[in-house]
């Protein structure tokens, strides 16, 4: 081989190898849109979340590959290939009824499988908890719901377990089960209001419900409120952080107060007021919260949180940007946090006045 041919061959080999190296380096160049994936999941729409992750795993980072794998194991195939819940319990068969229902519901968001789950629960409780046989004596839907709530709680108490009972989170029937809880009292200030509320701190969860299931353990309720008490998922918070003091305590405290002020107010409006309360108080986590509301906003959703997220950003946008809905996160980051605090509180005050004008029986306002 001539010297010139050797040089040309060497150059070609280098270029060929360089091309190979460039291709290999680019295989980790695609990032999953996590905010979109979790927004779909929290809106009970895994069908569209699966479209977002329909990417060759070779192009993803290790972290994104793991998320893709976990979602596909749970939702891509004809049956759930994942292990849920992670810890075995004496009520695994009960939880499986719910996971089957959750899976059907989020893969087929246009259909309603509530009645199917209800029938399964009735059969399960009658077989496992004899007092539940009384359910067969009525055809009244409200009474059946009350029985299911009562007997679910009583049945789980036989295993020294606690539950939320028979009810919904968003559009789906939910089931949260935990082993331990401790009661305490918190007093806090919501601007000019002072609220003192009992708080139940919950721990050792077996299941945190459909949001945990749909997001493969990434998101779950941090707590909720009844007319009697606040309930807190202890592991979700650093108790000295804004996440706890504002995103949880002030948010749920707003609910606790509103249950007395407006006892018939529906989910979307209750969440709207609680989310405005958060934005009127936050400092360190303010922009993160704004971004989360933008990513998880859906005016046409059946989920009160998604509707409230939209309406909060809509009304802040109208006041601050004079636009209908500002989704540019960079624009929000340039607005002074104190201004967002002031505007959020002003909107909350206006909403309170508007609701009071409608009377204590008001049910809806932000989306009529």
How would you explain this protein's 3D organization?
This protein has 14 helices and seven strands. It has 368 residues and is an alpha+beta fold. The strands form two sheets. A five-stranded mixed β-sheet has the order 1-4-5-7-6. Strands 2-3 form a two-stranded antiparallel sheet. The longest helix is centred in the first third of the chain and has 24 residues, at 3-26.
Give a short summary of the structure.
With 368 residues, this protein is α+β, with helices and mostly antiparallel strands. The chain has helices at 3-26, 34-42, 46-52, 62-75, 92-107, 114-128, 141-157, 210-214, 242-261, 267-281, 286-295, 304-320, 329-333, 337-358, and strands at residues 162-163, 167-169, 172-174, 176-190, 193-208, 223-225, 230-233.
Summary keywords:
single chain; 368 residues; alpha+beta; 14 helices; 7 strands; 12% strand; disordered N terminus
End-to-end separation in angstroms reads 84 Å
- In order across it, which strands form the biggest sheet? 1-4-5-7-6
Query: What is the radius of gyration computed over CA atoms, rounded to a whole number of angstroms?
Result: 25 Å
Shape: globular
Note the run of SSEs as H and E.
HHHHHHHEEEEEHEEHHHHHH
Largest sheet: 5 strands, mixed
Number of helices: 14
The chain-level mean pLDDT equals 91
Which structural class fits the helix and strand makeup? alpha+beta
Proportion in β-strands: 5-15%
Number of strands: 7
Considering DSSP H and I runs of 4 or more, what fraction of the residues is helical?
Answer: 40-55%
Contiguous low-pLDDT stretches (5 residues minimum) are 1-27
């Amino acid at each position: 081989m001539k010297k010139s041919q050797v040089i040309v061959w060497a150059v070609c080999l280098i270029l060929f190898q360089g091309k190979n190296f460039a291709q290999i380096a680019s295989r980790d160049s695609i990032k999953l849109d996590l905010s979109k994936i979790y927004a779909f999941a929290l809106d009970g729409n895994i069908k569209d979340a699966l479209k977002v992750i329909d990417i060759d795993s070779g192009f993803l980072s290790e972290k994104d590959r793991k998320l893709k794998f976990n979602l596909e194991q749970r939702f891509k195939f004809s049956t759930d290939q994942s292990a849920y819940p992670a810890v075995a319990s004496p009520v695994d068969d009960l939880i499986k009824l719910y996971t089957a229902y959750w899976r059907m519901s989020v893969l087929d968001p246009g259909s309603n499988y509530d009645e199917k789950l209800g029938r399964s629960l009735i059969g399960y409780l009658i077989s496992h908890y004899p007092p539940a046989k009384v359910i067969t004596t009525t055809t009244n839907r409200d009474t059946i719901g009350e029985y299911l709530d009562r007997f679910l709680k009583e049945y789980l108490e036989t295993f020294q377990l606690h539950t939320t009972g028979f009810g919904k989170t968003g559009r789906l029937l939910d089931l949260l089960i935990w082993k331990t809880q401790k009661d305490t009292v918190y007093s806090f200030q919501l601007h000019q209001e002072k609220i003192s509320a009992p708080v139940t701190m919950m721990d050792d969860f077996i299941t945190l419900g459909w949001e945990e299931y749909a997001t493969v353990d990434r998101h779950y309720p941090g707590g909720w409120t009844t007319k009697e008490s606040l309930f807190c998922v202890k592991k979700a918070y650093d108790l000295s952080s804004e996440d706890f003091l504002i995103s949880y305590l002030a948010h749920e405290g707003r609910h606790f107060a509103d249950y007395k002020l407006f006892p018939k107010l529906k989910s979307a409006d209750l969440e709207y007021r609680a989310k405005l309360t958060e934005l009127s108080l936050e400092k360190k986590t303010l922009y993160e919260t704004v971004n989360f509301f933008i990513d998880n906003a859906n005016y046409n959703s059946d989920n009160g949180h998604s509707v409230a997220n939209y309406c909060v950003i809509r009304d802040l946008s109208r006041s601050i940007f004079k636009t209908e809905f500002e989704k540019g996160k960079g624009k929000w980051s340039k607005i002074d946090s104190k201004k967002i605090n002031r505007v959020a509180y002003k909107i909350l005050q206006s909403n309170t006045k508007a609701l009071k004008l409608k009377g204590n029986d008001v049910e809806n306002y932000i989306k009529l």
